[in-house]
Automatic annotation (TrEMBL):
Residues 1-27 form the signal peptide. Pfam families: LamB (PF02264). This is Carbohydrate porin. It is a multi-pass membrane protein. It comes from the Bacteria. InterPro entries: G_neg_Bact_CarbUptk_Porin, Porin_LamB, Porin_LamB_sf.
Length: 502
């Protein structure tokens, strides 16, 4: 008898079912014939199943190959996008500047202070900020960058800022929260050619991209901001890049000269047209201003407020420490007339006279003088006259040095010394008195960092002790912290502060 083999449980099930259905009708067939036929049918079915499995495997493999090929392209695109995100070329990013601390006088009370506490401070004369800041100030900058298939790029930015001198945790009643920037900027536009090939355009409210400052004084060298539009990086020649912009700033709610309607108030916009030019390391900036009807402002008896202005700046951005070693330095000379006599914050003051003139010098740099010692000196000075009334004079100059000794990976000692001389003759404007004298300060600040290494390395937490002294005559000015009761010279202050940026 032929030996039967059943290869799978499925074959057994099929055989059993077939036998049951055959019944008596299959009685004439021998048992051997029936099982031989059944086995042949089972083998044919198994062959068809094997062929189907092979076809399925081939189809699956083909599909996997297609998917793998498609995924490679997708993976490359995702990797490229991740790299753009990581480099900040695309997607959302968040930047911060913040400082907050406590400043206590020798009597145990909160102390009036700040980089602009001297009589010259009202005209932009900043002294060193280390151990001299009683406020909490924070900027939160939200960026979203896009890159399009044609290569064009877009940036959208919103900046929110707040400042207060209160030590409370809830300061909604006296804080100055404000949206300082809201703008869009487009770059790498493929339809831009020639001089505009690498140019970018923008519109909205913003800080100008090319502002720069002396950080350890908390003083901008030049600060251009407002609402408007412009274009950056026009390539006008091989060694000549140029920016062109128009900004608007508002002089709001000021008394105007109207004898028939005393107490009448007005407002106006100051329009600032700017051409900012770069020739290698050199920068030449020219600004023209127009504030229609600002001459109706009542600034003083017999005085006329300016409704136009001119401002210019020549600056050099050095890539060494004054040519003496590694580091950097910047030097700038600024001059303005009329509304341009506010040489730092362009177009921000409407109480300047037609005849106002001002010239300012800024000079600063940073370097290492030894492997663990770095230094950052600065000079800031200005002379101006006919500023608010005919015949007034405001002359001041300051020297500041920030020094740091990096002792461990997480700790350094910082020192700051500064001196400011001033000779101010306001001609009685706003009840101010003529003063002549000097102000000096010295600060020691043990400082902790996650990692030391360079002047711009943040965040950091500082403890500090500051000694300030000044000539008694400065207390008579009447429009600064030094004119307040309790400021007598030879004063100690103490405190703690954090400073963060990223």
């Amino acid at each position: 008898m032929h030996k039967m083999t059943f290869k799978t449980p499925l074959a057994i099930a099929i055989a059993a079912a077939s036998l049951g259905m055959s019944g008596l009708a299959s009685a004439q067939m021998t048992m051997e014939q029936r099982f031989a036929e059944l086995e042949a049918r089972i083998e044919a079915a198994e062959q068809r199943a094997d062929a189907a499995e092979r076809r399925a495997a081939i189809a699956e493999q083909s599909q996997l190959t297609a998917v793998a090929t498609e995924s490679d392209a997708e993976i490359e695109e995702r990797l490229a996008r991740v790299e753009r995100y990581a480099d900040g070329e695309e997607g959302f990013s968040f930047n911060v500047y913040a400082r907050s601390g406590l400043l206590i006088g020798e009597d145990g009370k909160s102390e009036n202070a700040g980089p602009y506490l001297t009589p010259a401070g009202g005209e932009g004369g900043a002294v060193g900020r280390l151990g001299n800041e009683p406020d909490t100030y924070a900027e939160a900058i939200f960026n979203y960058r896009m890159q399009f298939d044609n290569g064009a790029k877009a940036l959208y930015r919103t900046m929110i800022a707040d400042g207060t001198t209160s030590s409370n945790d809830w300061t909604g009643g006296d804080s100055d929260i404000n949206v300082r920037q809201v703008f869009a900027e487009f770059s790498d536009l493929p339809s831009f050619t020639g001089a505009f090939e690498n140019a970018s355009i923008w519109a909205g409210k913003r800080f100008d991209r090319d502002n720069f400052d002396i950080h350890w004084l908390d003083s901008d060298v030049i600060f251009l901001a407002g609402t408007g539009g412009g274009i950056y990086d026009m390539q006008l020649a091989d060694n000549w890049k140029s920016n062109l912009s128009i900004y608007g700033r508002s002089f709001a709610d000021y008394p105007i000269v109207d004898r028939e309607n005393p107490g009448l108030e007005g407002d106006t916009d100051n329009l600032i047209l700017t051409s900012n030019n770069y020739f290698g390391n050199w920068q030449w900036m020219v600004n023209g201003m127009s504030a229609a009807d600002n001459n109706e402002r009542d600034i003083d008896v017999g005085q006329t407020a300016a409704d136009t202005g001119f401002h210019t700046m020549i600056a050099y951005h050095g890539d060494s420490f004054f040519g003496m070693g590694e580091g950097n330095f910047k030097a700038a000379v600024l001059h303005g007339q009329g509304l341009g006599a506010e040489t730092k914050s362009l177009g921000s003051r409407g109480d300047l006279t037609d005849d106002a003139t001002a010239t300012r010098l800024a000079l600063y740099g940073t370097t290492y003088i030894a492997p663990q010692w770095r230094i950052a000196p600065s000079i800031l000075a200005e002379t101006s006259e006919d500023r608010y009334v005919q015949g007034d004079k405001y002359n001041w100059a300051g020297l500041n040095v920030r020094l740091a000794n990096e002792l461990t990976q997480n700790f350094e000692m910082q020192y700051e010394a500064g001196y400011q001389w001033m000779d101010l003759d306001p001609q009685g404007y706003s009840g101010r008195n003529a003063v002549d004298g000097g102000f000096s300060k010295f600060t020691i600040a043990p400082t902790f960092k996650p990692e030391v290494g360079g002047f711009w390395q943040r965040p950091e937490i500082r403890l500090f002790t500051t000694f300030s002294d000044w000539d008694d005559d400065l207390n008579n000015y009447g429009a600064s912290s030094l004119g307040n009761e309790g400021f007598t010279g030879g004063q100690w202050t103490f405190g703690v502060q954090s400073e963060v940026w990223f």
